[in-house]
Design brief:
The protein is mainly alpha-helical. It has 2 domains: 9-55; 60-137, no CATH class. It has 6 helices and 2 strands, in the order αααβαααβ. The chain has helices at 11-55, 60-65, 72-77, 85-91, 102-106, 108-125, and strands at 81-84, 134-137. The chain has a two-stranded antiparallel ribbon with strand order 1-2. The longest helix is centred in the N-terminal third of the chain and has 45 residues, at 11-55. The N and C termini lie far apart (92 Å). 1% of the residues are buried.
């Protein structure tokens, strides 16, 4: 049996404390990642169910040919009306107009912020793009603004 010197006394305690800390961190990381995987799986299942429900409302033959998809069946079920996204957003005051260029010299940060908003609005209301999506508008408890 070897005799320990004073400098080695207590070294096992430090090793035990460090390794315990590392093990707790690894267990915490595994639990956290497991929760994230579960949340992603749940979100995927909800999205699949929504797609399946939406698919039941579509007339299959024209959709397969790529001609059109009839969303008026949905509108009829909820007593709503069909409205293109661009029209709905414009009715709500969304505009893709560029901000005044003079703002770029006086307040550059505000100009960039307004330009970003205008760019997003233009993309959402673009003909031949996102603006061509259909909305089913149904007023619940109020008069329809459309």
């Amino acid at each position: 049996m070897t005799h320990r010197t004073r400098g080695e006394r207590g070294s096992i305690s430090i090793w035990l404390a460090v390794s315990s800390f590392v093990m707790m961190m690894l267990v915490g990381l595994a639990v956290d990642l497991g929760g994230q995987v579960h949340a992603k799986q749940r979100a995927h299942n909800i999205a699949a169910e929504a797609a399946r429900t939406g698919g039941e409302q579509v007339q299959a033959a024209p959709a397969i040919k790529g001609e059109y998809v009839a969303v008026d069946a949905v509108a009829g079920r909820v007593s709503g009306s069909l409205l293109r996204q661009r029209d709905a957003l414009r009715n709500l005051g969304v505009s893709g107009e560029r901000p005044d260029l003079g703002l770029a010299t006086t307040e550059p940060a505000a100009y960039v912020r307004d330009l970003a908003r205008a760019s997003e609005a233009a993309e959402l209301t673009a003909a031949g793009g996102l603006g061509d999506f259909w909305w089913v508008v149904s007023a619940v408890g109020v008069d329809s603004p459309w």
